[in-house]
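Lecture 7 notes: from sequence to structure.

We start with a single chain of 71 residues. Read the sequence below before looking at the structure.
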Amino acid sequence: DVLGSRGLGDVYKRQGNYFTPFSLRLPVNLIETLSKIAKSNNRSMNKEMEFVLSRYVHQYEQVNGILSIRI
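Now the structure, written as C-alpha coordinates:
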Protein backbone atom coordinates (compact mmCIF):
# COMPACT_ATOMS: atom_id res chain seq x y z
CA ASP A 1 0.00 0.00 0.00
CA VAL A 2 1.66 3.21 -1.20
CA LEU A 3 0.02 5.41 1.45
CA GLY A 4 0.78 3.01 4.26
CA SER A 5 -2.85 2.95 5.37
CA ARG A 6 -2.71 -0.66 6.57
CA GLY A 7 -6.50 -0.91 6.73
CA LEU A 8 -7.10 2.51 8.26
CA GLY A 9 -9.50 3.55 5.50
CA ASP A 10 -9.20 7.24 4.62
CA VAL A 11 -6.74 7.86 7.45
CA TYR A 12 -3.12 7.16 6.64
CA LYS A 13 0.09 7.30 8.65
CA ARG A 14 3.02 9.56 7.87
CA GLN A 15 6.02 9.88 10.18
CA GLY A 16 4.13 8.84 13.30
CA ASN A 17 1.17 11.19 12.74
CA TYR A 18 -2.26 10.39 11.36
CA PHE A 19 -3.60 12.62 8.61
CA THR A 20 -7.11 12.50 7.23
CA PRO A 21 -7.52 13.76 3.66
CA PHE A 22 -9.83 16.78 3.59
CA SER A 23 -11.12 18.68 0.57
CA LEU A 24 -11.53 22.43 0.87
CA ARG A 25 -13.06 24.78 -1.68
CA LEU A 26 -11.39 28.19 -1.73
CA PRO A 27 -11.66 31.23 -4.01
CA VAL A 28 -8.88 31.37 -6.60
CA ASN A 29 -7.49 34.65 -5.24
CA LEU A 30 -7.17 33.12 -1.75
CA ILE A 31 -5.39 30.06 -3.16
CA GLU A 32 -2.96 32.28 -5.06
CA THR A 33 -2.30 34.40 -1.96
CA LEU A 34 -1.78 31.34 0.23
CA SER A 35 0.58 29.91 -2.36
CA LYS A 36 2.75 33.06 -2.29
CA ILE A 37 2.76 33.13 1.52
CA ALA A 38 3.64 29.43 1.69
CA LYS A 39 6.54 29.89 -0.74
CA SER A 40 7.86 32.85 1.26
CA ASN A 41 7.80 30.62 4.38
CA ASN A 42 9.37 27.64 2.54
CA ARG A 43 6.27 25.52 3.15
CA SER A 44 3.87 23.64 0.94
CA MET A 45 0.39 25.14 0.77
CA ASN A 46 -0.88 22.21 2.82
CA LYS A 47 1.69 22.83 5.57
CA GLU A 48 0.99 26.57 5.48
CA MET A 49 -2.73 25.98 5.98
CA GLU A 50 -1.99 23.48 8.75
CA PHE A 51 0.25 26.07 10.45
CA VAL A 52 -2.34 28.85 10.16
CA LEU A 53 -5.20 26.64 11.39
CA SER A 54 -3.11 25.38 14.31
CA ARG A 55 -2.40 28.98 15.34
CA TYR A 56 -6.11 29.81 15.06
CA VAL A 57 -7.09 26.86 17.26
CA HIS A 58 -4.41 27.78 19.81
CA GLN A 59 -5.65 31.40 19.95
CA TYR A 60 -9.25 30.23 20.23
CA GLU A 61 -8.38 27.91 23.11
CA GLN A 62 -6.48 30.69 24.90
CA VAL A 63 -9.72 32.70 25.00
CA ASN A 64 -12.32 29.94 25.32
CA GLY A 65 -10.48 27.10 27.06
CA ILE A 66 -9.01 23.91 25.67
CA LEU A 67 -11.45 21.87 23.64
CA SER A 68 -11.91 18.24 24.55
CA ILE A 69 -11.50 16.04 21.47
CA ARG A 70 -12.72 12.44 21.49
CA ILE A 71 -10.93 10.02 19.21
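The helical segments are 28-40, 45-64. Keep this in mind for problem set 3.
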